[in-house]
Protein backbone atom coordinates (compact mmCIF):
# COMPACT_ATOMS: atom_id res chain seq x y z
CA UNK A 1 0.00 0.00 0.00
CA UNK A 2 1.65 3.23 -1.20
CA UNK A 3 -1.30 5.62 -1.12
CA UNK A 4 -3.84 6.14 1.64
CA UNK A 5 -7.24 4.55 1.49
CA UNK A 6 -10.18 6.77 0.72
CA UNK A 7 -12.44 7.39 3.73
CA UNK A 8 -14.85 4.73 2.46
CA UNK A 9 -12.04 2.22 1.93
CA UNK A 10 -10.53 3.01 5.33
CA UNK A 11 -13.90 2.54 7.03
CA UNK A 12 -14.26 -0.82 5.32
CA UNK A 13 -10.83 -1.85 6.60
CA UNK A 14 -11.84 -0.89 10.13
CA UNK A 15 -15.12 -2.77 9.89
CA UNK A 16 -13.36 -5.84 8.52
CA UNK A 17 -11.72 -6.27 11.94
CA UNK A 18 -15.08 -7.45 13.24
CA UNK A 19 -13.89 -10.97 12.53
CA UNK A 20 -11.75 -10.61 15.67
CA UNK A 21 -14.57 -9.32 17.87
CA UNK A 22 -15.13 -11.23 21.09
CA UNK A 23 -18.60 -12.23 19.91
CA UNK A 24 -16.75 -15.09 18.20
CA UNK A 25 -15.00 -16.27 21.38
CA UNK A 26 -16.04 -19.77 22.58
CA UNK A 27 -17.26 -18.31 25.88
CA UNK A 28 -19.54 -15.87 24.10
CA UNK A 29 -20.72 -18.59 21.74
CA UNK A 30 -21.67 -20.76 24.71
CA UNK A 31 -23.51 -17.80 26.23
CA UNK A 32 -25.56 -17.14 23.11
CA UNK A 33 -26.39 -20.83 22.71
CA UNK A 34 -27.60 -21.14 26.30
CA UNK A 35 -24.79 -23.48 27.32
CA UNK A 36 -23.57 -21.52 30.34
CA UNK A 37 -24.84 -22.50 33.76
CA UNK A 38 -25.91 -19.87 36.27
CA UNK A 39 -22.51 -19.71 37.99
CA UNK A 40 -20.68 -19.25 34.70
CA UNK A 41 -23.02 -16.48 33.59
CA UNK A 42 -22.61 -14.75 36.95
CA UNK A 43 -18.85 -14.99 36.51
CA UNK A 44 -19.10 -13.15 33.20
CA UNK A 45 -21.35 -10.44 34.64
CA UNK A 46 -19.09 -9.91 37.65
CA UNK A 47 -15.91 -9.70 35.59
CA UNK A 48 -17.37 -7.56 32.85
CA UNK A 49 -18.40 -5.10 35.55
CA UNK A 50 -14.74 -4.22 36.03
CA UNK A 51 -14.65 -3.17 32.38
CA UNK A 52 -17.85 -1.16 32.80
CA UNK A 53 -16.58 0.86 35.76
CA UNK A 54 -13.27 1.50 33.97
CA UNK A 55 -14.83 2.97 30.81
CA UNK A 56 -15.70 6.40 32.28
CA UNK A 57 -12.20 6.62 33.77
CA UNK A 58 -10.80 5.82 30.33
CA UNK A 59 -12.95 8.54 28.79
CA UNK A 60 -11.88 11.01 31.46
CA UNK A 61 -8.24 10.27 30.56
CA UNK A 62 -9.03 10.90 26.90
CA UNK A 63 -10.67 14.23 27.77
CA UNK A 64 -7.61 15.23 29.79
CA UNK A 65 -5.42 14.60 26.74
CA UNK A 66 -7.74 16.35 24.27
CA UNK A 67 -7.18 20.08 23.59
CA UNK A 68 -10.19 20.32 21.27
CA UNK A 69 -13.11 21.83 23.15
CA UNK A 70 -15.67 20.76 20.54
CA UNK A 71 -14.56 17.15 20.82
CA UNK A 72 -14.66 17.29 24.62
CA UNK A 73 -18.20 18.70 24.64
CA UNK A 74 -19.45 15.69 22.71
CA UNK A 75 -17.22 13.02 24.24
CA UNK A 76 -18.18 13.88 27.81
CA UNK A 77 -21.63 12.40 27.13
CA UNK A 78 -20.01 8.96 27.32
CA UNK A 79 -19.04 9.56 30.94
CA UNK A 80 -22.56 10.68 31.78
CA UNK A 81 -23.97 7.62 30.04
CA UNK A 82 -21.98 5.36 32.34
CA UNK A 83 -21.81 7.31 35.58
CA UNK A 84 -25.25 8.87 35.36
CA UNK A 85 -26.20 12.50 35.56
CA UNK A 86 -28.68 15.12 34.41
CA UNK A 87 -27.67 14.83 30.76
CA UNK A 88 -28.27 11.10 30.47
CA UNK A 89 -31.96 11.57 29.65
CA UNK A 90 -33.74 8.20 29.80
CA UNK A 91 -31.01 6.49 31.85
CA UNK A 92 -30.42 9.04 34.57
CA UNK A 93 -28.81 6.42 36.82
CA UNK A 94 -26.25 5.55 34.14
CA UNK A 95 -24.90 2.37 32.64
CA UNK A 96 -22.95 1.34 35.73
CA UNK A 97 -26.12 1.26 37.77
CA UNK A 98 -27.88 -0.60 34.95
CA UNK A 99 -25.12 -3.22 35.02
CA UNK A 100 -25.47 -3.57 38.79
CA UNK A 101 -29.15 -4.29 38.23
CA UNK A 102 -28.17 -6.87 35.62
CA UNK A 103 -25.90 -8.48 38.18
CA UNK A 104 -28.67 -8.54 40.78
CA UNK A 105 -31.06 -10.07 38.24
CA UNK A 106 -28.47 -12.79 37.62
CA UNK A 107 -27.90 -13.42 41.32
CA UNK A 108 -24.73 -11.42 41.97
CA UNK A 109 -25.32 -9.12 44.97
CA UNK A 110 -24.59 -5.44 44.54
CA UNK A 111 -21.86 -5.45 47.18
CA UNK A 112 -20.04 -8.31 45.43
CA UNK A 113 -19.94 -6.34 42.21
CA UNK A 114 -18.82 -3.14 43.88
CA UNK A 115 -16.00 -4.69 45.90
CA UNK A 116 -14.80 -6.57 42.79
CA UNK A 117 -14.12 -9.76 44.72
CA UNK A 118 -14.81 -11.92 41.67
CA UNK A 119 -12.59 -10.06 39.19
CA UNK A 120 -10.03 -12.47 37.75
CA UNK A 121 -6.35 -11.43 37.48
CA UNK A 122 -6.36 -11.83 33.70
CA UNK A 123 -9.44 -9.65 33.34
CA UNK A 124 -7.99 -6.95 35.57
CA UNK A 125 -4.69 -7.02 33.67
CA UNK A 126 -6.41 -6.70 30.28
CA UNK A 127 -8.70 -3.86 31.31
CA UNK A 128 -5.89 -1.98 33.04
CA UNK A 129 -3.82 -2.30 29.85
CA UNK A 130 -6.61 -0.53 27.98
CA UNK A 131 -6.95 2.41 30.36
CA UNK A 132 -3.16 2.76 30.54
CA UNK A 133 -2.99 2.89 26.74
CA UNK A 134 -5.59 5.67 26.51
CA UNK A 135 -3.99 7.60 29.36
CA UNK A 136 -0.60 7.62 27.61
CA UNK A 137 -1.69 7.84 23.97
CA UNK A 138 -2.51 10.81 21.80
CA UNK A 139 -6.20 11.60 22.25
CA UNK A 140 -6.94 10.70 18.64
CA UNK A 141 -5.53 7.24 19.23
CA UNK A 142 -7.75 7.00 22.30
CA UNK A 143 -10.73 7.82 20.11
CA UNK A 144 -9.67 5.18 17.62
CA UNK A 145 -9.43 2.54 20.34
CA UNK A 146 -13.14 2.97 21.06
CA UNK A 147 -14.10 1.71 17.61
CA UNK A 148 -14.76 -1.81 18.79
CA UNK A 149 -18.16 -0.20 19.35
CA UNK A 150 -18.67 -0.74 15.63
CA UNK A 151 -19.46 -4.34 16.46
CA UNK A 152 -21.16 -4.00 19.86
CA UNK A 153 -24.80 -3.61 18.75
CA UNK A 154 -24.73 -7.12 17.29
CA UNK A 155 -23.71 -8.53 20.68
CA UNK A 156 -26.38 -6.55 22.51
CA UNK A 157 -29.09 -7.70 20.10
CA UNK A 158 -28.02 -11.33 20.44
CA UNK A 159 -28.24 -11.13 24.23
CA UNK A 160 -31.65 -9.53 24.11
CA UNK A 161 -32.86 -12.20 21.69
CA UNK A 162 -31.30 -15.27 23.28
CA UNK A 163 -31.23 -14.66 27.03
CA UNK A 164 -35.02 -14.68 27.62
CA UNK A 165 -35.21 -18.14 26.01
CA UNK A 166 -32.03 -19.67 27.41
CA UNK A 167 -31.96 -17.98 30.82
CA UNK A 168 -35.64 -17.36 31.71
CA UNK A 169 -34.72 -17.12 35.40
CA UNK A 170 -33.21 -13.68 34.74
CA UNK A 171 -35.71 -10.87 35.24
CA UNK A 172 -36.19 -9.09 31.91
CA UNK A 173 -35.84 -5.73 33.64
CA UNK A 174 -32.23 -6.63 34.32
CA UNK A 175 -31.48 -6.55 30.59
CA UNK A 176 -32.08 -2.80 30.32
CA UNK A 177 -28.37 -2.10 29.96
CA UNK A 178 -28.33 -3.88 26.62
CA UNK A 179 -31.44 -2.03 25.45
CA UNK A 180 -29.91 1.32 26.32
CA UNK A 181 -26.66 0.58 24.56
CA UNK A 182 -28.35 -0.19 21.25
CA UNK A 183 -28.98 3.51 20.71
CA UNK A 184 -25.99 4.86 22.61
CA UNK A 185 -23.48 2.69 20.76
CA UNK A 186 -24.70 3.84 17.36
CA UNK A 187 -24.38 7.48 18.43
CA UNK A 188 -20.90 6.91 19.86
CA UNK A 189 -19.75 5.02 16.77
CA UNK A 190 -20.86 7.83 14.46
CA UNK A 191 -18.78 10.35 16.41
CA UNK A 192 -15.71 8.17 16.99
CA UNK A 193 -15.63 6.93 13.40
CA UNK A 194 -15.97 10.45 11.97
CA UNK A 195 -13.03 11.64 14.10
CA UNK A 196 -10.90 8.66 13.09
CA UNK A 197 -11.60 9.12 9.38
CA UNK A 198 -10.80 12.81 9.75
CA UNK A 199 -7.49 12.48 11.60
CA UNK A 200 -5.98 9.22 10.28
CA UNK A 201 -5.30 10.13 6.68
CA UNK A 202 -1.77 9.00 5.79
CA UNK A 203 -0.73 5.43 5.02
CA UNK A 204 1.15 5.21 8.30
CA UNK A 205 -1.70 6.68 10.33
CA UNK A 206 -4.29 4.37 8.82
CA UNK A 207 -2.20 1.29 9.53
CA UNK A 208 -1.64 2.58 13.05
CA UNK A 209 -5.41 2.91 13.48
CA UNK A 210 -5.95 -0.70 12.45
CA UNK A 211 -3.27 -1.77 14.92
CA UNK A 212 -4.98 0.18 17.71
CA UNK A 213 -8.40 -1.30 17.05
CA UNK A 214 -6.86 -4.78 16.93
CA UNK A 215 -5.21 -4.10 20.30
CA UNK A 216 -8.59 -3.20 21.80
CA UNK A 217 -10.13 -6.32 20.27
CA UNK A 218 -7.34 -8.34 21.88
CA UNK A 219 -8.18 -6.77 25.26
CA UNK A 220 -11.78 -7.96 24.99
CA UNK A 221 -10.68 -11.41 23.80
CA UNK A 222 -8.14 -11.76 26.61
CA UNK A 223 -10.83 -11.01 29.17
CA UNK A 224 -12.85 -13.96 27.89
CA UNK A 225 -9.78 -16.20 27.79
CA UNK A 226 -9.41 -15.64 31.53
CA UNK A 227 -13.08 -16.35 32.14
CA UNK A 228 -13.00 -19.48 29.98
CA UNK A 229 -10.10 -20.86 32.01
CA UNK A 230 -11.75 -20.01 35.30
CA UNK A 231 -15.36 -20.94 34.68
CA UNK A 232 -15.32 -23.49 31.84
CA UNK A 233 -12.06 -25.35 32.39
CA UNK A 234 -12.04 -24.67 36.15
CA UNK A 235 -8.33 -24.00 36.21
CA UNK A 236 -6.91 -23.47 39.73
CA UNK A 237 -6.56 -21.25 41.69
CA UNK A 238 -9.79 -19.72 40.43
CA UNK A 239 -12.88 -20.26 42.52
CA UNK A 240 -16.42 -20.99 41.51
CA UNK A 241 -18.50 -17.85 41.86
CA UNK A 242 -21.48 -19.89 43.03
CA UNK A 243 -19.43 -21.42 45.84
CA UNK A 244 -18.01 -18.02 46.77
CA UNK A 245 -21.51 -16.68 47.35
CA UNK A 246 -21.97 -19.23 50.15
CA UNK A 247 -18.73 -18.68 52.04
In short:
With 247 residues, this protein is mainly alpha-helical.
Largest sheet: none
Distance between the termini: 58 Å
Report the mean per-residue pLDDT as an integer: 92
The geometry reads as globular
Task: Record keyword descriptors for this entry.
mainly alpha
Structure overview:
- The protein has 247 residues and is an all-alpha fold.
- 70% of the residues lie in helices and 0% in strands.
- The chain is built from 12 helices and no strands.
- The longest helix is centred in the C-terminal third of the chain and has 30 residues, at 203-232.
- The radius of gyration is 18 Å and the shape is globular.
- The relative contact order is 0.18.
- The model has no long low-confidence stretch (mean pLDDT 92).
- Residues 12-225 form the Thiaminase-2/PQQC domain.
- It is an enzyme of class 1 (oxidoreductase).
- Ring cyclization and eight-electron oxidation of 3a-(2-amino-2-carboxyethyl)-4,5-dioxo-4,5,6,7,8,9-hexahydroquinoline-7,9-dicarboxylic-acid to PQQ.
- Its EC number is 1.3.3.11.
- Pathway: Cofactor biosynthesis; pyrroloquinoline quinone biosynthesis.
Amino acid sequence: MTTPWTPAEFEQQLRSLGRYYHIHHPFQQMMFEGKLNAAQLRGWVANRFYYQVTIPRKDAALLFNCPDRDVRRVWIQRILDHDGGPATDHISDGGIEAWIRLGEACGVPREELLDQRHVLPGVRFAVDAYINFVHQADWREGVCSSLTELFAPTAHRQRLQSWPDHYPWIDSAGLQYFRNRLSEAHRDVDHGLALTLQHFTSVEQQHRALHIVKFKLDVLWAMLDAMYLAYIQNMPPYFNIEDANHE
